[in-house]
Amino acid sequence: MNKRNIVLFLAGILFGFGLGLGGMAKQEIVLSFLQLEDLGLLVLMGGAASVTFIAINIIPRFLKKPFLGGGFKPRTRTFSRNTIIGAIIFGVGWGISGQCPGSALASLGVGNLPVLIGITTEFIGSYIMGRYFG
Amino acid sequence: MFPLGILPYLMGGLVIGLGVSFAYVITGLHATQSSFYSTTLSYLTKIPYFQKKSYLDSREWRLFFAAGVIIGAVIYTLTISPDGFWTTSVQWWRLLIGGLLVGFGTRLSSGCTSGHGISGIASLSTTSLYAVITFIIAGIISAHAMMMLGVTP
User: What is each CA distance from B10 to A42, A49, A87, A107, B20, in whole angstroms?
Assistant: First the structure.
C-alpha cells in the first residue's frame, strides 16, 4: 500500500480521536457553542490551528521538502462571492444540525448511527453543488 | 462560558493539530475534511465537475483519511471516553436538512471548519478568515432561530 495513504490514515486517526476528545462528535456540544452557552469549540479550533501554524510556517524553514517528496505550500483559496455565500449556507446547516463534514464522520465512530442521515445528505448537497452550480 | 472546562477542548484541538501537522510534514498535503465528499463522488459520477484532476489525484488518500477519522473516534470511544458509544438526540429532519446545506455550502465556499477553520487560518489565508467569521455568525443566527422555534437540543 502507498505510503501517502498510510500517513493520511494515521493522521485521520489522530483527527478523529481529537474530535472525540474535544466533544465535537456530539452535535449537542457543537450546538451549545452556536447557542453561545459553551465557547469550547473556539478553543479547540484555535488549538488545532496553532499547532498547524507551526507545521505550515515554521517547519519548512528547517526542512526543504516533505519527507515523501513534493513541496510545502500553504492552503490558500481565491476569495470570491461564493466563499461568502457558501459559508452562509454552510453556517445555516451547521446551526440547524450541529454537524460539519469532519465531525459527522467522527460522530459515526462514536456509534451515533442517526448521523448517517446527515452524511448521506452531505454527499447529496455536494453533488447538487457540483452538478448544477459547479 | 466554559461549563465543561477548557481542558478537553484544548487537548482535542492539539491532537487534531498534530494529525494535520503530521500529514503536512510527511506528505505536504492539507488534511482537510469537506473535499472528501466530492472526491468520493468522482468514483460514482461522470459529471466533469467531479472528474477534475485535483479530485482524481486526491480521492484515494481522502478515503484513507476519512476512514482514519472514523476509526480514531472508535478508538477514543473504546479507550478514554467517559460515556462509551453515544447517540444524538438531534431530530432526523435536522440532520437531513443540515447535511444538505453543509454539503452544498462547504463545496461552494471551498472549505469547512477544518479546511478554512484550521488549515486555512494556519496558512494565514484572508479568504479563510472571512469564511470562518461568516459561517460562525450564520451558525449562531441559525442555531438561535432553531431555539426560537422551540426546537431542542
Answer: 9, 11, 25, 19, 15
The total number of structural domains in chain A stands at: 1
In which domain, by residue range, is A118 found?
A: 3-133
Q: What angle do CA B73, B75, B81 make, to 5 degrees?
A: 80
Provide the grid cell at A128.
447538487
Q: What confidence score (pLDDT) does residue A134 get?
A: 86
Mean pLDDT on A75-101: 98
Q: Cβ–Cβ of B135/A94 closer than 8 Å? A: yes
Q: How many angstroms away from the CA of B76 is the closest CA of chain A?
A: 5
State the first-to-last Cα distance of chain A, in angstroms, to the nearest integer: 33
How many C-alpha atoms does B110 have within 13 Å on its Cβ side?
19
d(CA A92, CA B146): 10
Q: What is the pTM of this model?
A: 0.98
ipTM: 0.98
Contact B30 A37 (CB under 8 A): no
| Cβ–Cβ under 8 Å, residues B38 and A71 | no
* Amino acid code (one letter) for A131: R
